[in-house]
Write a structure and sequence with these properties.
Elements: H1 12-65, E1 83-85, E2 91-94, H2 105-115, E3 123-124, E4 131-136, E5 139-144, E6 152-156, E7 162-165
Parallel strand pairs: 3-4
Antiparallel strand pairs: 1-2, 4-5, 5-6, 6-7
Length: 168
């Protein structure tokens, strides 16, 4: 009795065809995966800006609901009752007992931390957090640090406006 050994395997042509198909798929898929990271950063910035905007609106609504018409320190009924607002009801600090809309770097950080929930992106006046805060008269600028593109969220303490600028 003789047994014939049958060999199994792929021919060179089959291997070349499979490699060519994988290369074509990679050529189409790779650019989509690289843009996903950029889209994720942009979505994160937009979501954070929306949350900040909602926080600003909620503080203003609480200020109005409290029947207040002047600058107030420690708006009762919002967060830890430590948000200070301007004559128009827009948040200007938290814990500093301020009544001027002239913003400082530290007050910008205070506003961010008071208006956003505890699991919000981190902010500081340095560059070791998700966002870096800086102030200019009545404007707080929060620069997104995680992608290095310089995208920003700005908050205007004079009118409560939030503007998002996403850099390409």
């Amino acid at each position: 009795m003789s047994f014939k050994k049958q060999e199994w395997g792929f021919t060179l042509i089959e291997l070349v065809v499979v490699i060519a198909i994988l290369a074509i798929l990679a050529a189409f898929a790779l650019p989509r995966f690289t843009s996903l990271s950029e889209q994720a950063h942009a979505s994160s910035i937009q979501g954070t800006a929306g949350a900040l905007s909602a926080g600003v609106a909620l503080v203003k609504a609480q200020w109005v609901a409290n029947g207040t018409t002047t600058a107030t320190t420690d708006v009762v009924g919002f967060g830890d009752d430590d948000v200070d607002v301007s004559d128009d009801g827009w948040p200007i600090s938290a814990g500093s007992d301020a009544n001027s809309t002239t913003m400082t770097n530290d007050r910008c950080v205070e506003v961010w931390n008071a208006l956003l929930q505890s699991n919000a992106p981190t902010v500081s006046t340095g560059t070791d957090t998700d966002y870096s805060a800086s102030a200019g008269t009545t404007i707080c600028t929060y620069t997104y640090q995680l992608d290095g593109e310089g995208s920003t969220i700005t908050y205007n303490a004079d009118n409560g406006e939030i503007v998002t600028t996403i850099s390409p």
